[in-house]
């Protein structure tokens, strides 16, 4: 009887372990598919940007000939990014992420520079390209955040115990982030907490003083009245 009980317990443990392993494996497969789908969304927007940039360059060149170096840089980065996309089969890589980040900075800088050209700003074709590029950049940023969040969750499971046992057995490797490599965007703004803590106090003192002056106007000094000396109470019984 005892042997049968032990056998049943062992069988339940084995079934539980197998069930957990199958569930963990399916979880890895699901996470990998979600990462691939989220990357395809980024890739679509990147290709859309590849198509918009030549039109933008040609439009700006007709009005801002002095920006030739900037236009040539954007064209070179665009061609380099597209070549890396073809070499990697459209998959993310750190090298491609770095080039795409430089391309985003160059395009953003160009859109800021054209503010000095009023004729270009009034061009209908340029305004449409500017709007489409801005929307594309916003979608790239949103898709990148979603993709990196999925990669973080997946990589955490790959490295965590005991799910890493299934990952090593089934050869699930860590996914690649698509990060923004912009030191200016990454730099946190400097904040002095000492100044901030003093500002509210200084700001509150002025209205409080003004309110006190209104509520308590200055009055003429009143003559001081000396209190009358009260007789000292004697104890009811003498010694």
Automatic annotation (TrEMBL):
Compositional bias of kind Low complexity: 196-239
Pfam families registered for this protein in UniProt: LemA (PF04011)
Localization annotation: Membrane
Residue ranges, annotated region (Disordered): 195-239
Bilayer topology term: Single-pass membrane protein
Assigned keywords, A-Z: Membrane, Transmembrane, Transmembrane helix
Residues in coiled coil: none
GO CC term (a single one): membrane
Source organism, top-level taxon: Bacteria
Entry keyword annotation includes Transferase: no
Family: Belongs to the LemA family.
Protein name: LemA protein
Organism: Tessaracoccus bendigoensis DSM 12906
